[in-house]
Each structure stands twice: as structure tokens, then as C-alpha cells.
UniProtKB/TrEMBL annotation:
<protein>
    <recommendedName>
        <fullName>Lipoprotein</fullName>
    </recommendedName>
</protein>
């Protein structure tokens, strides 16, 4: 009984280091594709859409691209696991300006309890909103 309680009582961890956008920067961001099989197309589509909703023009780059290939770029890891159902267990998003990391978002539900069962699309949008509090739409 006690072991069952501890299995359900873990918690989700989330940290965001927001990006400070230069108001004169072009509103384009290069999204460097993650080639691992664990990244679901739904994550990539939702992340791209959330960036576009914030005012960015998104340019897709192949997995071998370097963050310094564009003025503003992003790389991501997104993993899903199975436990009663499929759930988003881990997300790491990094944002680079001229190859230098300027922001990061981390969501970790790998040891979480029941609070890991969330709407992944809503969580991705929330993370993007917190990661980019100031965007091309709000700096003009």
C-alpha cells in the first residue's frame, strides 16, 4: 500500500529560461528537425504552430544542421512513454541566437504520478508562451 502511494505521488518538473528577443531581429526562426524516432509528428506540428502563433516565420532545417546556420534557431527533444496510456514524458527545447544558447524550456514527467497525464498540445503551447514572452508580435 505504501509503495503504491509513492508510485502515484511523484511530481512533474518544469523550468523555463525565457528568451529575450532583440526587437530588430527578423521574425524568422529555424527549427532543426530532431531525427530520433521518439519525437512524434504531433509534437513537431504543435511546436511549429505555437511558434507561428507567436509571430515567427518557421524554417525547417534537417537534423544535421548547426544552430549557427540561422540568426535564431531552435532544437528540441520530445519523448513519450506508455503507462496506462501514451503520455508526453520529457521535453527539452533550446533556443539559439547566432549559435549561442539564449533560452531553454524543460518539462520532465518521467518520475511523475498521475499529474503526468496532461494535454500535450496545451503544455507545448504553454511552454512556448513562457519561453518567448516577448516575440516579434509584441516587440513591434
Amino acid at each position: 500500500m505504501i509503495a503504491g502511494f509513492f508510485a502515484l505521488s511523484g511530481c512533474v518538473s518544469q523550468t523555463i529560461d525565457p528568451v529575450k528577443i532583440n526587437p530588430t531581429s527578423p521574425p524568422e526562426i529555424c527549427m532543426i528537425e530532431n531525427a530520433t524516432k521518439k519525437v512524434r509528428q504531433g509534437f513537431t506540428d504543435t511546436y511549429r504552430a505555437a511558434l507561428q502563433e507567436k509571430g515567427f516565420t518557421v524554417k525547417q532545417l534537417p537534423p544535421a544542421s548547426n544552430p549557427s546556420d540561422c540568426h535564431l534557431s531552435t532544437q528540441y527533444i520530445a519523448q513519450w512513454k506508455w503507462n496506462l496510456t501514451i503520455y508526453m514524458s520529457y521535453v527539452e527545447i533550446k533556443v539559439y541566437e547566432d549559435g549561442r544558447m539564449i533560452g531553454k524550456a524543460l518539462y520532465d514527467a518521467r518520475i511523475a504520478g498521475l499529474d503526468k497525464y496532461i494535454n500535450a498540445e496545451d503544455k507545448i503551447r504553454e511552454m512556448v508562451n513562457e519561453l518567448f514572452p516577448q516575440t516579434p508580435k509584441t516587440t513591434q
